[in-house]
Design goal:
globular, five-stranded mixed sheet, Rossmann fold, 18% strand, binds xanthosine-5'-monophosphate, 10 helices
Length: 321
Amino acid sequence: TWTPTNIIDDQVATIRAQVGDKQVICGLSGGVDSAVAAALVHKAVGDQLTCVFVDHGLLRAGEAEQVEKDYVASTGIRLKVVEAEERFLGALKGVEDPEQKRKIIGREFIRVFEAAAREVDAERNVEFLVQGTLYPDVVESGGGTGTANIKSHHNVGGLPDDLQFSLVEPLRTLFKDEVRALGAELGLPAEIVQRHPFPGPGLAIRIIGAVDRHRLDVLRAADLIAREELTAAGLDGDVWQFPVVLLADVRSVGVQGDGRTYGHPVVLRPVSSEDAMTADWSRLPYDVVAKISTRITNEVPEVNRVVLDVTSKPPGTIEWE
Ligand code: XMP
């Protein structure tokens, strides 16, 4: 019978048999899958695991801290953090095209991760790489086992030939809700286990226009309010994802106090979905939408207008870029 405890015991035995006394590395993204995969491997082989977290500066408010503090505190995992915000923002400077943004972020990510993996390898002689591949990913990619391949959620190519690791994929037979159950059983913070899916390129593809630090901060502030109010209303589980999008190149006239404003709109894009292939706009209660709108326009000075996206997928996509 399927219980989180059975699966954990099973996987721990399998991982121990595969890894033996060798060293393992795992990249953490801030998402559920890599967090649970790493926690399982840590339970199996403890200190033989080193995790790497590349902070590209494109995460939402508090997410990097959750990985660096709460996750580490709850698991005891050894974590190497690479602060790469400046590097990513430098590479993204002035870039407006969505696919170009993705390419740049994917390329920088693999370079930074590779450099970190080389350092860990030099210290510890790493043989294995953990990937948080889920069953739907296995089916989608034709079911084969790969060699080291940082597909994760960045959809970029593998590591170079001279840096080859064998893969450990403890979530290969599981669905997302099962992974969440394992994560909870392993004692991971609820904020990580219950997190909505989040794209690898992060907030960069939720800023329509070029990305910079100030725009990211504006979007992070608006996004945090939307998340807080969704949670306060008890609606996290009703929504698949809730992108908040900053239309950074659009301005509209508004009025506040006795002054005219000329600020930016943000778009609320809450969607319901089973698998992200199709989606519908979530019918959030209007009082929740109203609260989010009031708070964002009051608390984020750069934003003077909040709009609700009422497009299904298709024809819209979930993300705006
Ligand atoms: P769309 O916008 O195509 O998104 O309806 C479908 C799902 O994929 C996520 N998404 C991405 N995930 N890298 C990712 O890792 C990406 O470049 C990317 N683009 C979209 C999106 O958040 C949704 O869950």
